[in-house]
Amino acid sequence: MIELERVGEHEFVASNGRGASVRIGRKGQEGSFSPVELLVAAAAGCALVTSETLILRRTGGESLSAVADAVQSESGNEVISIPVTLSYDLSAVDDPEALETVVRRAVEQFCTVTRTLKQTATAPLQLPTPLQTTSDPL
Fold first, then answer.
1. What distance in Å separates the CA atoms of residue 17 and residue 2, rounded to the nearest whole number?
2. For position 110, what pLDDT does the model report?
3. In angstroms, rounded to a whole number, what is the distance separating the alpha carbons of residues 87 and 92?
4. 124: which residues sit within 8 A by CB, 6+ positions away?
5. Is-contact 87 100, C-beta < 8 A?
6. What distances in angstroms separate CA 135 from CA 56, 120, 128, 130, one per listed residue?
């Protein structure tokens, strides 16, 4: 479970039960990620976490990074694509095409975030209900 707490105007802190936290704010706000930036980071992070062992075992290196960006609809209110580019050194790889195939297959099969984005997950919103007042009978 992720909990969010308001810490200032347009500023929130999201935390998990393992002691990690991240600041969330409006787009362009200093010191925080916007919600869309977090979505983009989740897609890239999931691809990296999913492929890390495969890539590092086959490349023999330690260098692994990703770049991702949100492609938004013309209205700017929807993300229609999140291209993720992985970067790693291929100089020690005998068959780069085979590595590409394995990495793509792993991400497509096991990356929960990108799999969820492909399925268009729902995000039901629950709002507090007004307190019911009871009147005492006379």
1. 8
2. 97
3. 14
4. none
5. no
6. 68, 45, 21, 15
